[in-house]
Design brief:
By secondary structure, the protein is an alpha/beta fold. Helix content is about 40%, strand content about 25%. A six-stranded mixed β-sheet has the order 2-1-3-8-7-6, with helices on both faces. A five-stranded mixed β-sheet has the order 14-13-15-16-17, with helices on both faces. The longest helix is centred in the last third of the chain and has 20 residues.
Length: about 425
């Protein structure tokens, strides 16, 4: 049996949605890398009874490892260590060396803060003294901020980590090196994980292919396959033990045979990563109407994007399209702002305005009330222009409300750009 784990994410701000949980998914990936079978991620507010209920639920599931996040601060609602100690049947004691370390950290922080010299450091140290309380026998994880973490050996072993993602991620590296955590996961099973990404394929078509593969691929039942539709792309994640590598290879062969045109990544690389490589040594400009700059934002998310993103224009009005991108007013009047000729003119205008060698233009009807019988809401025209050749232009009708149309349009544009750059103008 593989090592089993559970995660308890604490924090009323996370439970109510004011703060998005980043720790649960991040830890899930780290456990997968270690070959640990994550069974549950639970979420609860800063109430002792609720935190303890989550711990007992996971213990009842016979997990070998429980990881908690959050609730390690100096305020009254930060009580995770206290609850975990009670759950483990351990007394809390002050660690003198840790108290001195926390005091030094706080003093240094106050000195660097505006007005920090006027703060009553003695009162502050007293408030933070609770952070030096640790369960007897626990392994202390040194603070990254002001909050230490702990690893408590036992069945299950409990790892208590802070809530801020930067602190948690750094502290996790220390936690996995402790003898207590190593002992807890000593019986783990090695897993491999492979990700295939597709674009332009309905989920129903993929489901049909997987049903066929279940009968055709020997060992299919040993593959743990999950599929997810995100931003118009299909993500197929397969987890398996090394002994089942041939079954995965046979599954991949089936996917290639049925959907070669839709597969754009077999190694998990995202479209953003691929475009960063394809744009190396080039410069790209954007011209957007209905997407409000979302394409430019996606292209500039990666570090180093300033090397290849020359600039972008968001032009909603016809006057702006003419003034900023040089689109002929007569062309707009003749074909309409949402048309392939105008999309192509916008792409060429972006090329010229920013002196780029590559450009992408999007113009469409995303919101309610703007559609017609011939051009319903969701009609979007795209054009990708290269300084070295003709523009590639097309029109699609995308489903959903305004936000969905915008996001899907951005994805379509990125895939058109990728296909153009690799010399294949067709878009699935």
């Amino acid at each position: 049996m593989s090592v089993r784990a559970g995660i308890v994410v604490t924090g009323t701000e996370v439970l109510t949605g004011r703060v998005r949980d980043r720790n649960g998914p991040w830890l899930a990936d780290r456990l997968l890398e270690l070959g640990v079978d994550l069974r549950h991620i639970t979420l609860c507010g800063d109430r002792p009874s609720d935190i303890e209920a989550q711990l007992r639920f996971l213990a009842d599931q016979r997990v070998d490892l429980i990881i908690t996040t959050g609730g390690l601060g100096p305020t009254a609602d930060d009580m995770t260590v206290e609850v975990v100690a009670r759950f483990c049947g351990l007394e809390l004691v002050v660690d003198d060396a840790l108290e001195v370390r926390i005091s030094e950290i706080i003093t240094g922080l106050m000195k660097r803060m505006p007005g920090g010299h006027s703060v009553d450091l003695d009162a502050l140290r007293a408030a933070n003294r609770k952070q030096a309380l640790v369960p007897v026998g626990a392994v202390i994880l040194d603070p990254v901020g002001t909050a230490p973490g702990v690893v408590i050996p036992g069945t299950p072993t409990v790892v208590v980590l802070p809530g801020p993602p930067r602190e948690l991620q750094s502290m996790w590296k220390t936690a996995v090196e402790t003898d207590a955590l190593k002992a807890a996961i000593a019986g783990r099973t090695e897993f491999r994980q492979q990700t295939v990404r597709m674009f332009g394929l309905p989920e129903s078509a993929l489901a049909d292919t997987l049903r066929g593969a279940e009968a055709a691929v020997e060992g299919y039942g040993q593959l743990e396959i999950t599929t997810c539709l995100r931003r118009g792309e299909l993500e197929i994640v397969t987890r398996f033990e090394p002994r089942d590598a041939q079954a995965y290879a046979d599954l991949l062969a089936v996917l290639r045979d049925r959907h070669a045109d839709a597969i754009f990544s077999e190694d998990g690389a995202r479209i953003d990563d691929q475009l960063a490589g394809l744009l190396d040594g080039r410069t790209v400009a954007t011209a957007e109407s209905c997407t409000a700059g979302l394409l430019a934002a996606r292209l500039t998310e990666r570090p180093g994007s300033s090397k290849y993103v020359a600039g972008g224009v968001v032009a909603y009005s016809n006057t702006a399209k003419s003034a900023l991108l040089g689109v002929d007013a007569g062309l707009i009047e003749r074909y309409g702002a949402v048309s392939e000729p105008v999309a192509e003119a916008m792409a060429l205008g972006a090329l010229n305005r920013f002196g780029a060698d590559t450009s992408v233009a999007i113009t469409g009807i995303a919101g309610p009330g703007g559609g017609t019988t011939t051009k319903p809401v969701g009609t979007v025209c795209f054009s990708v222009a290269l300084a070295s050749g003709p523009a590639q232009t097309r029109t699609v009708v995308l489903p959903g409300p305004r936000a969905d149309v915008r996001e899907r349009s951005t994805t379509v544009a990125m895939h058109m750009l990728r296909r153009t750059l690799i010399g294949d103008p067709g878009v699935p």
